[in-house]
Amino acid sequence: MKKENTVIVALAVLAALVATTWLILVAPGLGSNEVNMTRGVTQQSADHFELHMIVLWICAIIGIGVFTVMFTSIVLHRKSRNHTPAKFSHSTKAEIIWTVIPVLILVGMAVPATTALVKMEDSSGAEMTVKITGFQWRWKYEYLDEDISFISSLDPNSNAARQLNSGMVPANVDNYLLNVDHPLVLPVGKKIKFLITADDVIHSWWVPALGWKRDAIPGFVNEAWTNIEKPGTYRGQCAELCGKDHGFMPIVVIALPQDEYDTWVSEQLAEQGAAL
Fold this sequence. Notes:
Elements: H1 2-26, H2 43-76, H3 92-121, E1 128-135, E2 138-143, E3 148-152, H4 156-161, E4 184-187, E5 192-198, E6 203-207, E7 212-216, E8 222-226, E9 232-238, E10 250-256, H5 258-275
Parallel strand pairs: 1-5, 4-10
Antiparallel strand pairs: 1-2, 2-3, 5-8, 6-7, 6-9, 9-10
């Protein structure tokens, strides 16, 4: 019987370890079925991912320990084994231990979390500034250093496909509901400050690859910053329920090497000059 009990406890612990390992190490590599936090393309997003993993491992270890003790107690101290219950109702030593240890764990998690939050708010030293204004149901981008501005809306193909009786199959539209007519173009390797506000109701500017989101609130200006490390196209959406077309307010950021970004700026200035 003792050997059987040991086997049961060992299997329970092994199952917990396998499940935890799969969720933390294997599941993040499942591509479109990823269940872990998204890895981004900025140092901020990398810091947040590492912090997330540290906290996740701490929680996993605590969970394994708790369930191991629980299943061990259930198996080895069950009534069918004629186990005699302990005759105590209080332990000051135990209460001190289970109070001090959680406090130390929380403090240990709070220190790097606070450091990350402070870094998120530090937009000093920015090399360029972009003002973002949300309104139903578009985004306006203003490059304050370049005198460039434009409005970004849902791309025409997605907008047509979403209409009732359009005759279009949404699955056949590239990046359905996640594409725009005028994306926000930014250079890589440069610290960029964002000034985020709104003209009507509360919106929220969110691109997961950048590692943060900010509310766009009428009458207020929220600051944020980013430094994109890798060229590419990164997509996001309004993350605040803002009205009937909230789901049709995507965000697209195209990050370009500095020379390609300079070429894009020249083209935009030429187009806006020709339009005057």
